[in-house]
Amino acid sequence: MEQIGNIIQRQKIAPTDAPKTVQNVSQNIATALLEFHKTNPHAYEDKRNPHFKNQYASLESVIKTVRTASQFGLTFTQEMDFEGDVTFVRTVMMHSSGDTRVSRTKIVSKDPNDPQKQGSAISYAKRYGLQSIFGLPSDDDDGEIANKDGKPPNDPLVEAIKNAQSIKQLNQIYKSNQPFNDKNLEIIKAKRGELEQ
């Protein structure tokens, strides 16, 4: 009897360790994601981890980058999800057609009873879940070495503004990426003038 209990328990735990992302991707999502990837989006490493002395892309940086996908009809939600004693962040990619794609990222915390550590683990899962479902790389040393012209990589928001094909698309970029800094406001004003000609 004890052996049967162990088998059942293993079967119950096994699905939580397996990724829940295997599914058919709709034509709408595939097309929109392809157009988004043509803009060469990536999240900038805007934070520094003092413990490991490395740079990383913050959740805010990843969200800012992903929001530029709204010009192609893509958006997302993230919420907590549970399976037994295991907690996940469930990321839902949504297309304006109503099509969705779902991925779950397990939340791993050294001490789930410590709110600070649990909050950090949730942010980590959100960041990597979002980068994963949208196929976003982040800056890394290899990428900078490979950049032969020595110029910094393009800002995805600036690229989205420059690639806007209509005032409507420009307005959508503006609304979904608030707040705008002065530099980006100038770029959007210039693009609006170009589109109004």
Which labels suit this protein?
single chain, alpha+beta, 197 residues, 17% strand, 3-stranded antiparallel sheet, two-stranded antiparallel ribbon
Describe this structure in words.
The chain has 197 residues and is an alpha+beta fold. Helices cover 48% and strands 17% of the residues. It contains eight helices and five strands, in the order H-H-E-E-H-E-E-E-H-H-H-H-H. It has helices spanning 2-17, 27-38, 59-67, 115-134, 141-146, 156-162, 167-176, 182-196, and strands at 47-49, 54-56, 74-83, 86-95, 100-106. It has a three-stranded antiparallel beta sheet with strand order 3-4-5. A two-stranded antiparallel ribbon has the order 1-2. Strand 3 and strand 4 form a beta hairpin. The relative contact order is 0.14. Residues 1-22 and 140-152 have low confidence and may be disordered.
Structure summarized in a few sentences:
It is built from 8 helices and 5 strands, in the order H-H-E-E-H-E-E-E-H-H-H-H-H. By secondary structure, the protein is α+β, with helices and mostly antiparallel strands. Strands 3-4-5 form a 3-stranded antiparallel sheet. A two-stranded antiparallel ribbon has the order 1-2.
Topology at a glance:
Layout: H1 2-17, H2 27-38, E1 47-49, E2 54-56, H3 59-67, E3 74-83, E4 86-95, E5 100-106, H4 115-134, H5 141-146, H6 156-162, H7 167-176, H8 182-196
Antiparallel strand pairs: 1-2, 3-4, 4-5
Helix pairs in contact: 3-4, 6-8
